[in-house]
Write a structure and sequence with these properties.
A hairpin with a 6-residue loop joins strand 8 and strand 9. The chain is mostly beta strands. The protein is flat. It is built from no helices and 20 strands. A four-stranded antiparallel sheet has the order 6-5-8-9, with no helix packed on it. A four-stranded antiparallel sheet has the order 13-12-15-16, with no helix packed on it.
């Protein structure tokens, strides 16, 4: 704290940077597993001990990567062995650090989810080997099941298209299970449909001391008047 003049104190808070060695850096294979010989997306995130995102750059073998937003990003890999490490570099300080990745499984299944904004479906690819070759895919949002299908791997691949019209806005869980109901893989995606509640506020009258102003508050949902479950109508007038 310092004084700009005798009666006006000024307080300025300065965040001291943490060393890269204290950052929590995690690598997360899509669906929870990655398998040798199968292409996989590996997400990563980096945060400081106080929760502040950290921008990092790195390299896994000859594959380079960098954070995209909020200390997060992803890298696409096809593992040829079980053990990998990432060499991490802080772009501002030049600090380096080596972080091990989760072990790649020698066999099993992996999942890739493609959510193309312009498509009417969310596409799910399951690859690998699983015995017995019978799987169940379940899609649910907040406990509400919106899609379920049973299938099997054909030549090591099973593809499923989930109609977006079945989904509701929010975090959607896509889970691949065994026929006994054991979760094998899970992927979370965020779905945002055109289901915003639009509020419009207009006023009438002039602003003057002790003057009266009318406020009209209207609500609409998907271009239709919307009335919430409350004593107030979809158009409310306050004077």
């Amino acid at each position: 704290m310092y004084y700009e003049n005798g009666d006006y104190p000024v307080i300025q808070t300065i965040r001291l940077p943490y060393p890269l060695s204290l950052a929590d850096i995690q690598f997360l294979p899509e669906g929870g597993h990655w398998v040798i010989g199968k292409k996989a997306n590996v997400a990563f995130r980096a945060i400081d001990p106080d929760g502040t995102p950290v921008d990092i750059e790195g390299q896994i073998d000859d594959q380079k990567f960098a954070t995209r937003f909020g200390g997060m990003g992803k890298v696409e890999l096809t593992p040829a062995k079980a053990d990998y490490t990432a060499t991490i570099t802080h772009p501002s300080t030049g600090e380096t650090r080596v972080v091990p990745l989760p072990k790649a499984d020698s066999n099993g299944i992996v999942v890739q989810v493609v959510n193309n904004p312009g498509a009417a479906f969310i596409t799910v690819f399951v690859q690998g080997e699983y015995n017995p070759n019978s799987l169940l895919l379940v899609s649910q949002t907040r406990g509400v099941i919106n899609y379920m299908i049973q299938g099997a791997l054909a030549n090591g691949v099973w593809g499923v298209r989930i109609p977006k019209e079945n989904l509701i806005s929010g975090i959607n869980h896509i889970t691949v299970l065994s026929t006994e109901g054991k979760p094998l893989l899970e992927r979370l995606i965020f779905v945002q449909k055109d289901d915003f509640l639009n509020l419009n506020l207009t006023s009438s009258g002039t602003v003057s001391p002790r003057g009266k102003i009318g406020l009209d508050l209207s609500s609409s949902f998907q271009n239709q008047p919307f009335k919430v479950h409350s004593p107030w109508p979809s158009v409310m007038r306050i004077r």
